[in-house]
Amino acid sequence: MTAKFRVQFLVDAAEFIDKLDEKTREKVIYNIQKAIVSNDKELFKKLKGEIWEFRTLFNKTHYRL
Q1: In contact, 62 and 27? CB cutoff 8 Å
Q2: d(Cα 29, Cα 31) in Å, to the nearest integer?
Q3: In the chain, is it the N or the C terminus that has fewer CB atoms within a 10 Å radius of its CB?
Q4: Where are the domains of the chain?
Q5: pLDDT at residue 63, rounded to an integer
Q6: Where are the alpha helices (DSSP H) in 1-45?
Q7: For all residues of the chain together, what is the average pLDDT?
Q8: What pLDDT does residue 41 have?
């Protein structure tokens, strides 16, 4: 599949992902990669301008990035 957009992480976002445990980090990254090719509104939402929020539910915890 072809990517529909490109993702750039702010330093704080990259540090947040790095601090997650391995399984959670893998799930968050998987959902970001899935959103890039699928435009799934359950996985991401436009907040304003070029700012988007990625959403992941893993182990009964919601992660928003």
Answers
A1: no
A2: 5
A3: N
A4: 11-64
A5: 94
A6: 11-19, 22-38
A7: 91
A8: 82
Residues in the chain: 65
Please name the residue that has the structure tokens 């992941």: 56
- 43, 31 contact by CB (below 8 A): yes
DSSP state of 5: S
50 CB neighbour count, 10 Å cutoff: 8
Confidence band of 14 (pLDDT split at 50, 70, 90): very high
Place of tokens 């790095």: 18
Evaluated on CA atoms 1, 62, 51, 25, the torsion sign reads negative
**C-beta of residue 64 within 8 angstroms of C-beta of residue 55:** yes
Q: Which residues contact 65 (CB under 8 A, 6 or more apart)?
A: 13, 16, 17, 28, 32, 53, 54, 56
Dihedrals φ, ψ of 20, to 5°? -70, 155
